[in-house]
Amino acid sequence: MPIPQIEYMSDSWKDGLFANKVVFCTGGAGTICSAQVRAMVRLGANACIVGRNVEKTESVAKDIATVRPGAKVIGVGAVDVRKVESLQDAVARCVKELGGIDFVIAGAAGNFLASINQLSANAFKSVIDIDVLGSYNTLKATIPYLVESAKKHRVDSETLNPSPLGTGGRIIFISATLHYKGSPYQAHVSVAKAGIDALSHSVAIEYGPLGVTSNIIAPGPIASTEGLDRLLPTDEKIAYVKSQPLGRVGSVRDIADATVYLFSNTGSYVSGQVLVVDGASWRTPGSAGKRTYPDFLLSGDAVQNVKGQKSKL
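Now predict its structure.
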């Protein structure tokens, strides 16, 4: 049964908004990125999602394609974002089968909980390679097509009229808010996300003159995602949700709507920005659940019973 639209996209957007456009997404089989792509496809785009797991990536692609009759969604598995050649092959297939690339979502990421004492150099490097190098490789493999798309879809600088062909030539990097204040057990991810932020800003400056926009979406705590499940034990979730400024955690729909905003005409003059979608969560004192800071660090105890302590794409 198809996922109800209300779960992945609000009713604010008009049908056909991204007709005849193509979105390329790394990490596209993940909970957040698949919702972003699903919204784009529902609004007219075709898509190519890539990931490490072949079966999962192909299955999610087929599922996303059900949101709109005639939609084309390619799932390319066995892609390692740490290797630019792997991404280039996926991009080549996307362009061959779908005709080009207008939008890119760089969403592949790795995360796990570990203190600096627990964190080996290889583990640290693994997250940097997936997040930062993977984002850079995604950019390098797709930027020629984004430049081409931007040239076709530039906003008229005198009348401010959007191109009759719609928008294109835009990239979104998926980051986080962990590095804004610093987070225990997240040094590796904080460094990686800060690097992604800096990369996006550089893209906005260097490729802006060619019409390409580059922005970041920084999700806060999002329900039913691996990130929240890994970082917050089940028995602490109720108290955590209650502590949020809006009294709830976010949904994938919140992130998908932000994506549509940045990729549509509404985002035509938004570039080099970080769009934080977290309900003001990062501005609160926060907590480590039942662990009291800094006692849990001074104890020297290793993090125990944390779900999914492995890097994933």
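Residues 119 and 188 are 8 Å apart (CA to CA).
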